[in-house]
Amino acid sequence: MQVCRAVTKKGTACKAAAGATGLCSMHEDPERAKAPGTLGGKQNRRSSVDLEIPEGTLALTDLCNLVEAALRKLIAGDLSAKDATAVSQLCNLLLKMHPTAILENELCRLRQQLAEAEMGTGKNPDFLSANMEKKQASGDGTGEAEAAEAASVLASPGRNGSGNHN
Q1: pLDDT for the residue 46
Q2: Cβ neighbours of residue 157 under 8 Å, at least 6 residues apart?
Q3: Cβ-contact 136, 142 below 8 angstroms
């Protein structure tokens, strides 16, 4: 076997098998030598995913539209399977978080309504909770007084004298 007679960039002799010209295939065609390196470099580059994502909070319809667009691009070959998997995982994560986000928004809305109602009536929520604690400590507000009052009304004779109002 004949060895290539060219010298490498490091200055050592090339050890590849030589062809008919006395050079290996890489030294015979230097442009061909560049091709494998550029292919590897291009494969490692990040690809850009051209999916239109609306600004702000994503609604369920936005997620459906995003998944449909990704599916179309995947089938057309414009989106790699790796990128489509990433989009899918992110959409699944958003879907799992969506019910919690709805409940948090509803809680904030109800707190806002309560604050507005209390401002309109002039009631202070701290005053209300302190007042309830005082009533419970004294036995008021536990329902005992209300129950006794209701029992006396129910036991009072009606028109027929038997406690029934019929």
Answers
A1: 60
A2: 163
A3: yes
Beta strands in the chain (DSSP E): none
Query: CA dihedral in degrees (53, 59, 60, 65; nearest 10)?
Result: -30
* pTM of the predicted protein model: 0.41
Distance of alpha carbon 74 from alpha carbon 98, whole angstroms: 26
- Which pLDDT tens digit goes with each residue over 64-84? 888 899 999 999 988 888 888
The Cβ of residue 24 has, within 10 Å, a number of other Cβ atoms equal to: 20
Dist CA 45 CA 41 (whole Å)? 7
Q: Where are the domains of the chain?
A: 1-34, 52-124
Q: Which residues of the chain have pLDDT under 50?
A: 142, 153-156, 163, 165-166
Chain length of the chain: 166
**pLDDT, the chain, mean:** 75
As beta bridge partners, residue 13 has: 7
d(CA 38, CA 16): 21
